[in-house]
Write a structure and sequence with these properties.
Layout lengths: L1 H14 L4 H56 L3 H12 L6 E6 L2 E6 L8 E10 L3 E14 L1 H53 L15 H71 L8 H32 L7 E4 H18 L3 E6 L5 E4 L1 H18 L4 E9 L2 E8 L21 H7 L5 H11 L3 E7 L3 E9 L2 H4 L3 H18 L9 H8 L3 E6 L7 H7 L3 E6 L2 H10 L4 E5 L5 H8 L5 E6 L9 E4 L4 H13 L1
Helix pairs in contact: 2-3, 2-4, 4-5, 5-6, 6-10, 7-8, 8-10, 12-17, 14-17
């Protein structure tokens, strides 16, 4: 029993400094100590004063004993009697010294050296009580040591100190015991219940307090029990819902991937014949032999224009699919902003003027070079200008290019129909326009602004829109300059300028060589040769036409024909669509060849030491890749 009690108190005291009871004890104990010390100081002071008063009373008692005899001796001028009385008084244990003054003569008697700071003095005068009570005869002063006061008050002070220590100790024990019993233990139960609930969320945690008078804590425990029960039920329900949602999420993700794959494949399949239609119609539009009449030329213009519009829409669908899948990548290069923006201006100004609208163009000449994706910036600005051109019937379209510290600020504003404020929040959503009537009246898919927003996000820039009905719309785009990358790419920029110069030169040449076999045969001996392996000539038609301007190109639809041609002739470059061959054929017949190779694939492929281009590819970018590969 004794050990249990000792262990109980040992546990309490050992862990007490880690509990809330300790904090409460500290606050109360400090106040209690202050109060006790104040009261103790007052008691000690009172005891000291009491001892001092008792000493003075004792001195008065001595005065009363000898005053009559001393008065008679003074009145009779009996010095022997006076000395005898003084000696008798001095023999008292209380008296440490006496000073007696008569007829201006001072008599001093003492047992020890008298220091006024260490002694209490009491004096009185002697008068002629027989003849004239007011007549002064002599004075006497008694001295008693203060040690007597200290000695008398010492016992009382010790008792006071002992009482203080006992009361403090009892207070400490009681506070620790009762804070542990009524506060710490119930709180620990609450804490353990909460921890148990954290570890086993699906199980109900129940806390039971043994004491009925723990009102607030009992209410808290009951509230926790109800809460844990409700939360446990909610968690079970939530987990069931989460399981259902995860299943639905997986189904939606699969459907979304299937949709993205479908859109990407359909876009690719549509682009291939459409590129051929646009290319052939543009060649026929030249009407070099004058075999087509005016009506046929106009029909070809309609075909070419509609084909380009359809290609633009297909590209939008393809881009949005890549953006949703996170597969769209930016191709950074050093860009001359002035050249790019004037190119866009020259492209759109005739279209604006054709609609009898005004076109305002401003360019901040402080802007020079930036490091970004030229084609995607062009796509953003073209989309914004196309929207303005679509929705403005009269007034002005503005393209303003400004220098904004670390950004290029592109502002496209117009005096068009405007957008309601409540529609601005959803204006960047995919496949959304202001309302259904807008789509019916003006056309479009509602992808342009969504693509712009996502592309600006890839650039880590910003896009904002402001609009007011019947007053117009202003869209502001911020594109980072990435100036720290510009200097690193100056050498690369010079190379790209040479490539661009070659590409521009080839673009200005006529496409009629397709029908001029004699010229091709004459030039073929001087040109470098390229062999292409693919089973879909339409998808490579635009590239082959572009390459035939400067190279001798041979296509093969089968691996057998391709191997035969490469054995007969040494080609400068091999372009292989790896979707046309198996992995074994690629490894055994293609990758072992000594010629330079460019591999084309619909999916990302990791083949070491090989140049890989992903389908569908941009013809101009593919030409640039071929030029680099040939010159490497």
């Amino acid at each position: 029993m004794k050990e249990r009690i000792l262990n109980y108190f040992s546990d309490i005291f050992n862990n007490f400094n880690q509990t809330i009871g300790y904090l409460i004890f500290k606050k109360i104990f400090l106040g209690y100590i202050f109060l006790v010390l104040t009261l103790a100081s007052y008691q000690i002071f009172s005891e000291y004063n009491k001892a001092q008063n008792e000493l003075i009373n004792d001195l008065k008692r001595i005065e009363n004993l000898f005053i009559d005899d001393l008065t008679k001796a003074v009145m009779n001028n009996n010095k022997e009697r006076i000395d005898k009385i003084i000696e008798i008084i001095l023999k008292d244990d209380l008296i440490s010294g006496i000073t007696f003054e008569i007829n201006k003569e001072k008599i001093l008697r003492h047992k020890q050296n008298i220091n006024s700071e260490d002694f209490v003095s009491y004096g009185y005068s002697i008068f002629d009580t027989a003849k004239n009570p007011r007549k002064y005869l002599a004075s006497i002063q008694l001295f008693a040591s203060k040690d007597i006061i200290k000695k008398e008050s010492k016992k009382s002070i010790m008792l006071i100190i002992i009482n203080i220590l006992i009361s403090v100790l009892m207070f400490w024990i009681l506070v620790i015991t009762y804070t542990n019993l009524y506060l710490t233990i119930p709180l620990k139960k609450l804490i353990n219940g909460i921890k148990s609930f954290e570890e086993h969320e699906e199980e109900r945690s129940h806390i039971k307090l043994q004491l009925n008078n723990l009102r607030e804590l009992t209410v808290l425990a009951d509230s926790f029990n109800k809460m844990s029960s409700k939360i446990s039920e909610d968690i079970i329900n939530l987990r069931q819902l989460t399981m259902i949602q995860n299943l639905q999420k997986k189904a939606l993700e699969q459907a979304n991937r299937a949709k993205d794959d479908f859109l990407a494949n359909m876009s690719h399949e549509l682009k291939t014949p459409l590129n051929s239609i646009n290319l052939i119609s543009s060649i026929m539009l030249k009407n070099k032999d004058k075999k087509l009449n005016e009506k046929e030329v106009k029909n070809l213009e309609i075909i070419n224009r509609c084909g380009n519009d359809l290609l633009f829409l297909i590209n939008d669908v393809l881009d949005i699919s890549k953006l949703e899948a996170g597969k769209l990548e930016l191709y950074y290069e050093t860009i001359d902003v002035k050249e790019l923006m004037y190119e866009i201006k020259d492209m759109f100004e005739p279209q604006v003027l054709e609609k009898d609208l005004e076109f305002k163009f401003e360019f901040d000449r402080k802007l020079e070079l930036i490091y970004s994706d030229k084609q995607r910036i062009k796509q953003i600005v073209k989309n914004l200008l196309s929207n303005s051109l679509k929705f403005v019937h009269e007034g002005e379209i503005r393209l303003l290019i400004k220098d904004k510290e670390e950004y290029v600020e592109i502002i496209v504003s117009d005096d068009g129909i405007g957008i309601e404020k409540d529609k601005l929040e959803t204006i960047f959503d995919r496949f959304k326009q202001v309302d259904g009537s807008t789509t019916r009246k003006y056309g479009g898919t509602g992808l342009g602004l969504a693509i712009c927003r996502d592309l600006v996000g890839l650039f880590k820039g910003d896009i904002k829109i402001e609009s007011e009905i019947d007053k117009g719309t202003t869209i502001t785009v911020l594109i980072p300059k990435n100036l720290d990358q510009v200097n690193k790419c100056e050498l690369q920029k010079e190379e790209e300028k040479l490539i661009t110069k070659k590409a521009k030169k080839t673009k200005n040449e006529t496409l009629d060589f397709l029908f001029d076999e004699e010229l091709e045969n004459k030039e073929s001996k001087k040109k470098r040769s390229i062999a292409i392996l693919n089973n879909d000539h339409l998808s490579y038609m635009s590239l082959v036409i572009e390459l035939n301007k400067n190279y001798r190109v041979q296509q093969s639809a089968s691996l057998k024909d391709f191997i035969s041609k490469t054995k007969e002739e040494k080609f400068d470059l091999l372009i292989v669509d790896i979707d046309s061959v198996t992995k074994e054929q690629l490894r055994n017949y293609i990758l072992e060849k000594e010629e330079k190779i460019i591999l084309v694939s619909k999916e990302k492929t990791d083949i070491e030491n090989q140049e890989i281009v992903e389908k569908p590819f941009d013809t101009n970018q593919m030409v640039n890749t071929i030029l680099k590969r040939l010159d490497s």
